[in-house]
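INTERNAL AUDIT FORM
Audit reference: QA-55
Scope: verify that the stored structure record matches its stored sequence.
Auditor: D.O.
Record contents follow.
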Amino acid sequence: MIGKPDDQVALAGTVEAGIHRLAARVYYADTDFSGAVYHARYLEFFERGRSDLLRLAGIHHTELAASEGGLFWVVRDMAIRFRAAARIDDVIIVETKIASVGGARISMRQTITRDGAVLAQADVEAALIDANGRAQRLPRAWRTAFEALAGAQS
């Protein structure tokens, strides 16, 4: 067996000073014919960062979907700025910071870096909805946790 059960935690990245950091390797499947990461793949790297931040906060997509009435996170708005290309075999870091927390929404700033150089940045607004697509208020415990993360950023 490779690894230990504790390695599952490392897969979700780390949170320090309110900032979630997730390391990822760029694979051949992430690139276009030139060897650079295809622009749409950055969305997937950003999604992994957001999902694992939620996971470390104790919020799991599968549990939300299985809850009574079903709850789901959706991206309501996203603006991306591309600065430089990631390339095959690069190890990138996806950083996610909570920018603000609303009643049913959370805004985040995400950055993808390689060796400290910024490759892409995204401002993302995600909302919590039910199975009928109606906005749902964030539970107080989540709101408190998100606000604590936002306040812990240095």
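Auditor finding: record pair retrieved intact. The mean pLDDT is 89.
Action required: none
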